[in-house]
Amino acid sequence: MDRRFSLLARSLLGCLLFGLLFSITLMGQGGPPGARVSNLYVEPSEPGLILAATSTGVFRSDNGGLSWGPSNIGLTNGAISKIAGSQGRLYLGTSVDGVFRSDDLGLTWQRVSDGISPLDIRSVAVDPNDPDIVYAGTRNGGIFMTDNGGQGWIKVNNGLLTFTPNGGAAIFEGDYNSIAIDPNDSQVMYAVHSSLVTSGSGVLFRSTNGGGQWTALDGGTAGFALAIDPNDSGTVYVGASLGLSVTHDSFASATVPVELFGRHITDIRIDPLNTDTVYVSTRLSFTFRSIDRGVTWEAISSGMPFSESFALAVDPHTPATVYAGFNGAGIYRSTDGGDNWQLSSDGIFGTDIRAMAVDPQDSSNILAGGFGAGVFRSQNGGDLWEQSSDGLLTVQPRALGFSPQDPQTVYAGSVDPFAQGDGALFRSSNGGESWETAATGLSFFSIVVDPQSASTFYVGTSSGVFGSTDGGDDFRSPQRDSRAGEFRA
Predict the structure, then answer these.
(1) Are 339 and 357 found together in one domain?
(2) Rounded CA gap, 65 and 67, in Å?
(3) Is it the case that residue 393 has pLDDT exceeding 80?
(4) Residue-number span of the structural domain to which 254 is assigned
(5) Which of 280, 311, 343 represents a domain boundary (last residue)?
(6) To bridge 329 with a disulfide, which of 270, 289, 306, 373 should be the other Cys (CB 3.0-4.6 Å)?
């Protein structure tokens, strides 16, 4: 009896702890603004309304991204993959709990996963002409469809590729990362796939009967993004792991723009008022824009963080306003069609923090380095954070250090996640308000400042430990007592 009571008590305690941890995750855990943003959705019927799918739940903005708040009532899983909508009804996919629906523009959600849970949902597409018809792409389950608003789901996998692991039952292997429905003919749709068996490979599929039958159009690199020109259904953009394919004749032919060749495309968005303008995001921190329907492209990343870009959105009411979501760095907004970007994550919490330092003479003065988001500073013990990255290169800080003797002297070390063994060291003489480059050429993972001398400090790098006695102008290796030739000061 005692043992059964103990097991019951532990089970109840576990459930309570899970609920508490999940609620904390959905509310955000404080700190600098930002999160891992996987998808952005702008509601056409409500100017200023945007929803962001993040690793810590859904965030909602009613003022064009100037401020955000959690919008998770009814959700039971914080890992949101995609949000899609039609005629005021929204759907979202989660990693373990299937699909949820909102009939009040994201204020509340209800689970509509009968027949599809507990599959990992990778994509969601809603019929633009009928919000009851929804398609969901899954991991290792193919594509599912509902025609009753999610009350019941059926498989629509005819023609999709199967894989039989270890002689077992065949599965529709891989991630169906994006589904696009032709806004001019809802029976026509495309889906892109990335294989989990053969790394880097995938297939582009098309259906002309609402998912009843799929035909493979192209097999090659893994596919991740799709977009159909609303004014010309024959123009389709396909984002893959090695570039972008553009067709203007429904894939009778296709081209791969040279500017995007070899780049991993993560999202594609078309300006709804001027479909000549197209935006794509990539995993290597760059966003590109075309103003000639995909023929030529230019990088538009001024002001963006040094992080993987996963999501884009164009405001249909003011198309010069474009949003970009990043891995750990939150949301950035441009109001000039992508020429310049600024952080727009106020109220979104969950930034991936890789470094922190506290002023040794004022504990309310704190610096935090975000994954791809630069350095943030709080002067009130963490209640309010502001970016403090003036002079920093677009980096990922991994180390921060105040001088105990003179806290106005601060050092920051960074890494380049896309070039192993490369990074930069920065120095501030005003407590982190602005920075200057002290050295480049190695990854900097730790910093220790001498308590007796603000200009003497040691750094842990990708090539060992080095020290400086002159504020970073010159470095020597304590082990070898020789100048650090790897550095480029």
Answers:
(1) no
(2) 5
(3) no
(4) 30-343
(5) 343
(6) 373
